[in-house]
Amino acid sequence: MRRFLLFSTLLIIVGFSACRKENSISSDPSHKLLFSADTVLFDTVFTSLGSSTHQLKIYNPYAEDLIISEMRLMGGETSRFKINFDGESGSLFHDKLIPANDSLFTFLNVTIDPTDQNTPFIVEDSILFVTNGNQQMVHLTAWGQDAIYVVGDHWVSILRYPYTIVADSLETTHWTNVRPYVIYGYALINSYGTLHIHEGTHVYIHDKSGIVSWSDGQLIVEGTAENPVIFEGDRLEPYFKNQPGQWDRIWLQECRPGADHIINHAIIRNAYIGLQPESVFKATQAALRINNTIIENHSGMGIYSTLYAIEANNMVIDNCGQYAFAITLGGDYVIKHSTIGNFWWSSPRTTNSLFFNNYFDDDSTGTRYEYPFRFEMGNSIVYGAAEEEFGTNLSANEVDTTYHFDHCLFKSKKCSNDLPGFISCIFNQDPMFVDYRNYDLHLSDVLSPAVGAGSPAIGALVPFDFDGKSRTGTPDLGAYQY
To answer: In the chain, fewer beta carbons within 10 Å around the N or the C end?
Structure first.
């Protein structure tokens, strides 16, 4: 009897095994992989030869098997990232099966030498997965060198990219030059917060990242002539040294009373927009004050200002793909001893270097909103590669609108000293910069028409040039004395 029961049990097991069908393999293009993360972040600061391993879980949530026809590390064999997929190491894999309602693990490793000064602060790659004709990407991000990393991890609708608060309400945060700062996302100054960046601080900013001062926040940048504060992209390879458009912008919303935004002795380079001062929720109640600052090599605009107040001395703006200095919806501006030299050569430029606008048309209601506008520029240079470097789009009513150029050198065919607002200006004469292709807008020769052409009264208000030279006697035009 026992033998009969054993034999019967074996027959039942064999019978069930013979009847069980293998899962079919899905070819449905709507069937896609799921991942434990769409970005694998190696958030370790490497202070010596650094290595870190993370895992990525790949899910098949369907009742049929899935085949990953291709899995590729986009950086290939030269990538700083390494993959171990289903027990196999490599950078390219084919025809890997994930059973129905199951998953596979992938182990990811990155090795970085932070003493290699050509290593980017942020090292990136991605993994391509191809399944049933679908292409899916998982991004890999690692910190490359010893720095202070500011990483956006919150979202708000008005900002396009994630942010983190670096100075909260009623808080003053100090950034110093002990280590560089690397911004990934937006570094946000909250309302009634202050970010104070001290001399010699180097701020590296990642793609699609920047600094935002929220309404009633305050940014203070206090560099010195010997130790300026530098804002630039986080790619350190030589190719990126003068590559525009590497990061987003410094966006300054309206100031609160008595809390001016201040930028002294700074270099802001290689962004989409260098500075965007803008009244978003209300008109600003203080000013942006810029002194001895270079704003250069931006793929969009150097300064894009909306209904703001700016006072600038010894400011240099050069090489911008659109406007060097664009003013919209009016405001109040006083610019002295500054140089705008726009010789953008990376692509065609059809915009003016300096542009004014004082109104906004609401097409939905047919209403025109006009704003008061005052602009004063003295002992300055506006020059570039375009035939016309001065443009306006002002309301015909010209409500409370004045602009005044006193002892300036202009490249313009439509302006002259016979027109209101122009006093002792020089038109369409080459200022003779040292080397605009290498971002040097010093005056190269005593024969420059800008030498000795300034107003002594304006020069006395800014008695030293960008380099600290005295402007005694008759000053030169622009930010630099010859």
So the answer is: N
